[in-house]
Every structure is written in structure tokens, then in C-alpha cells.
Amino acid ABC transporter permease
Amino acid sequence: MEMVVVAPPAPGRLENLKRRFFATPLQALLSLISLAIMAFIVWKLLDWAVFSAVFTTSGGPEACQAAAGACWSVIAARWRIILFGLYPFEEQWRSALACVAVVVMTALSCIPAFWTGRRIALVWGAGTTLYYLLMKGGVLGLLYVGEEAWGGLALTLFIFITTCLIGFPLAICLALLRRSELPWISRTTGIVIDGVRSLPLISILFTFAIVLPFALPQWLVGDKLYRVIFGSALFFSAYQAEIVRGGMQGVPAGQEEAAMALGMSYWQRIGRILLPQAMRNALPATINQFVISFKETSLVVIVGFFEILASGNAAYGTGEWRFAYVEVYAFIAFIYFVFVFSLSRYGAFLERRMAVGER
């Protein structure tokens, strides 16, 4: 008589927790102590941020100073400075609408139906143009507002978007040039990439903002904001070029050889065979580079721009709210978290959809 072996049932969640954290008396004691410490920290944070906090501006700064919790009144009183910076008060609706245009543009780019070169170019071109017209004005009856008055979240988003728009195509060009079969082209490109990557971003921003005007003719100097954006895009492209090149090296050589056997031209091989697979391979590192670039926009405060971090400094810089700097920075950190976390989750979605890492 043949015996039938029945596999034991899979352990449930409680059984897994018991095995992982309560396997021995000592492990159980350490788990309980850790749990108690985490519960204490969470309770203190909730008590400070919610239960004992002040949310209204009715009592003024004095009510916040007398309270034991957070002073969120500073956000209610100074949110315009944080979000819009030096932008004229009567025109701040334009800055808000420009931020919405950037968010909508990004959201549309995340929809698979728009994943064609023509549609992506149309969405990003229209969104960037609408943003620029709303912020600068001078047309359609809108008051002209120079770049020196831009600030807050709107300026942070503009620097990030334009850095990616300029830097990403430049990165692809640098990656292709570094793969050139002509040694003088590949080596020169490698020197440029390694030279840019060896410099801190702060020094590049300072050079493009302060030093470069002394080395260029007056007609080529341009506005300081656009010089800083180009410097940031150059820095972004140097790192992204190596990411793209690494993705290209991950494509089997037989793919390009098969395309050559089919009679495809160089640009057809690049556009239809090599780059799509390279970008798929480089997707996790590319998303990480976007996240880093978004956070690095805060460095432009060093060269005199009023982005969201500088706006936060101004929000509590007045004498009456000087004590509430923790709440202001917590609010700014929350804004950064929302954008960065959304970008990271979208990157994870793309990885699952494209089955990155699977063969």
C-alpha cells in the first residue's frame, strides 16, 4: 500500500511573529522592551503634534508659547510665505495654479496611455509652458513678475522639472558619446563626466551663478536662475549618463547584432532596441536619481534663491514666531516626503509593471 505524504500546513501570521520575536525568553523580553519604547515615543509624538498642539491663530504666538504641544498656528499664519515666497500677494493664485499644472503634468505622465514619445512631449511641453506663462505673466492681461520674485514651492518645482527636462536628454547624449567607437570622443566624454561628478553640486551652482558671468560676454550671461538650472542639469546629466550607460551594458550584445543583421540603421538600433531595454534595466537607479535631484533643489538657497527652505526660514524669522522653527521645518519635511514618497511608489509600480530584475 502506497503511503501518501501530506505537507504540514503553512504557519500563520501569529506563528511567524512568535518564531521571529518570541522564540526564547530573552528574545521575548527584548521584544517587549522594544515595543514599550516605541509605544512611548509614538505617544509622546502624538501628544506633542496633536493632543496638546495649538492649531488656530486666535490666541496669537502667546497662546503657542503657553501650550505644551506643537504650534501649528505658525503654519496657518505664514503658509503663504512658505509656499509662495516673495511672489506678489495679489498674484499668488497664479503661483498656486502653476504648482497644480506641474502636478497634473506629472500625473498624466504616469498614465500608461501617455507613454509614447509624442504624447509625453506634448504633455511636458504644454505643462511647462503653462507654468512659465502663469509665473512670469506679461501676456493675456497677467501682471509681469520677474524671476527674482519667484519663490517657495513653485520655484522648487520649477528647478526640479527643468533640471530633469534638460538633464535627461543630455545624459542620454553623454552615454551614447561615451560608448562611441572613436577613442577621442569616448575619452573626452569620460573626462567631462568624471570631472563633473568629482565636483560637489554647491561648487557648480556657485560657479554658474557668480563666476560664469565674468567669463562670458554680456549678451550670453542670461538670468542667474537659468544659469543655476543649467548647472544643476549638467550635474544631473553626469550621474544619469553613467546610469544609462550601465543599463546599455546590461543589454545582451546579441540584441544589437540581431538588429544589425535585420538592416537597421544606428539610430533605429538605439531608439528601438538598445535604449528601451537600457532604460528598463536602469529604472531603479533612475528613480533614485530623480529623488536625489528633487531634494538637492534646496541647495539653491546658497546662491540667493528663495525656494521652499528659504521661505521656511523667513516664515519663522520674524520675532513673534521665532520659537516655532521646529513646526515650520516639520511642515516643509512633510511636503518633501509627499513628493519623494509619491515618486518612489510610482517607481516601484513601474518596476512591477516592467518586471525589472526578472528574466
The chain has a mean pLDDT of 83. The two ends are 43 Å apart (CA to CA). The first strand starts at residue 306 and ends at 307.
